[in-house]
Amino acid sequence: MVAEDHIGAASPETEGRVGLKAGQLRRPEFRDATVRAHALLDIGEIDDPEALSYLQALKRDGLPEDHTNQVWPAAQVALHHALMSRITSEQGKIRFLEDTLLERHDAFSDGAVVYWAINQLCDRGSQGSVALVQEAIFKRDSTDRGAERVAFCKARVDLLSRNPDRTVALASVLELASGFRDAELLHWAIDQLASIKSSRANGELERYAKQIDALPDDSPLKDAGLPFLQQIQDLLGLER
Q1: Which end of the chain has fewer CB atoms at under 10 Å, N or C?
Q2: Does any domain span residue 76?
């Protein structure tokens, strides 16, 4: 209902079934394109054949007009995510993602779908996909920003290649001796560890947070580390 901007038809009974109070779903913010796009991405993460069928049946001209062009690209990313989730082997997922880079997508969703596939491949540490990722990025962006995207992908792949254990590989960058120079990679590694949702991964994050917090308050290194400390506290719900 949110994705298709049908919240006006929401009955109190419908709202109650999803844990909302009467009238809550009909608040204007649920009609915002960003919220509608987020709803579609959430549908793509539901491991259910009905969710996949819904996304496959969606048509761009069947959705309400969206001047921000967020909703339809989100629908196509969600569809590809749902399709990938049905693949059981990691190698099969990688092949699917590489094929996605080579597919012809409609002009409205091409960038969103391709960059989703790029990030999936980089976040999986697919060394064999780096050349294809670089080609896909430079095809769409040959500026310095494109070069930065390629470098960031390579940095993620290199980091994950340090150890076959993903937690160990990600945690290897969380060392004070390395400083905080590569902020983008550090923020990414912290997010990835938190997404594992295991006691080991959370333990590595807590260790790093304690190391930063123990630095002298007047230390320039402490100032540089505060954004990472706050990120970990927010992700794990730690007290500040």
Answers
A1: C
A2: no
